[in-house]
Amino acid sequence: MSPRDVPPRSANEALRPDPRLVARFRGDCAQLIDVDRDSVLVAVSGGADSLALLLLAHEVFGDRCFAATVDHGLRPGSAAEAAMVARLCDQRGIAHASLAGDLPPRAGRTANLSARARLLRYRLLEGHADAIGATWLATAHHGDDQLETLLMRLNRGAGVAGLAGIRRKGVRTVRPLLGWRRAELAKLVADCGIAAVDDPTNVDDRFDRARLRKVIAGADWLDVERIGVSVAALGEAEDALGWAASRAMKDRASLGEGSAIVDPHGLPSEIVRRMVRACLEHVDATSDPTGPGLLRLIDSLRGERRAMLGEVIAEPRGDAAGIRWHFAPAPRRRSQ
């Protein structure tokens, strides 16, 4: 049956997503989880993307679909937005919870506000998923998000791990909308008679992603779907490199109590980088060994020079078997 042959829906049905879109979404979910048994907690902000995810998930999972909204308290209207989502869920018979908490302190990768808000959001959502027994946490990242993320990371000189982009499935999280476009999700919500929240940060030029979004909007030659295929391939490459590095750690590294030794001889640079990072994190669990600092440390070790990164000191030492790199806590600095 072609789209033209599909009979028009009644007024009541118009408030629900098009069955063809629901079938498409069910197929996307089936590639990730067990749609007949698993339950999902949908993270809903009130924006069109997350509302579309909620509507589709409710059609597929029924009573096994739950919703939660995190109120970060960072904008004056955030509480009203959470209340709007709660009302919508009540109207549609979806169990909903509004979550709030204190932002984590600035440290390591959580130095900026958006990173701290993200950490809080996932912490609260995963905790609520545990409390209600939801199998998976579902977020509304879509194809346009994937493209924006890829371009931002390219602009920052990211490696394979960064260019692998947003993954469809994590330990607890699934993102079934990565094959969908922002515009079609917004249309789905509008067709259901719902006015989505418009987050002002999406058009605020103080944010990199907002500026990039405006540029992408005028680049109609970009093929988000094909770019998504490339990102998926990079994700597979990242998994392969992680597997290879894990094998190399077993064969070429020795992890002790607060210390580590690695033999890098003859290994590819990317495998060495991952092994060194693992050693640094083993010695100091609070370290964030990424970017130029990590590469400078490796260059020093290759030049047979001692180096320090964060609270870890690394030193090349030679013996009859060759040169190995040793990692240990840096000496405690004397107070002035």
List keywords for this structure.
single chain, 336 residues, alpha/beta, 5-stranded parallel sheet, 11 helices
What does this structure look like?
- The protein is α/β, with parallel strands linked by helices.
- It folds into two domains: 3-234, 3-Layer(aba) Sandwich (Rossmann fold), CATH 3.40.50.620; 257-329, no CATH class.
- Helices cover 46% and strands 14% of the residues.
- The protein has eleven helices and ten strands.
- It has helices at 19-30, 48-61, 78-92, 113-132, 143-155, 160-163, 182-191, 208-217, 224-252, 269-283, 291-302, and strands at residues 40-43, 65-70, 95-99, 136-138, 173-174, 253-256, 259-262, 307-309, 312-319, 322-329.
- Helix 9 crosses helix 10.
- The relative contact order is 0.09.
- Residues 1-14 have low confidence and may be disordered.
* Largest sheet geometry: 5 strands, parallel
Helicity range of the residues?
A: 40-55%
Unreliable segments of 5+ consecutive residues: 1-14
Terminal Cα separation, in Å? 79 Å
* Rg (C-alpha, Å): 24 Å
SSE topology string: HEHEHEHEHHEHHHEEHHEEE
The CATH architecture category of the largest domain equals 3-Layer(aba) Sandwich
Alpha-beta classification: alpha/beta
Q: What fraction of the residues are assigned to beta strands by DSSP?
A: 5-15%
- Order of strands across the main sheet: 3-2-1-4-5
Count of DSSP helices?
11
Here the CATH topology of the largest domain equals Rossmann fold
* CATH class wording of the largest domain: Alpha Beta
**Mean pLDDT, nearest integer?**
88
What's the total count of β strands?
10
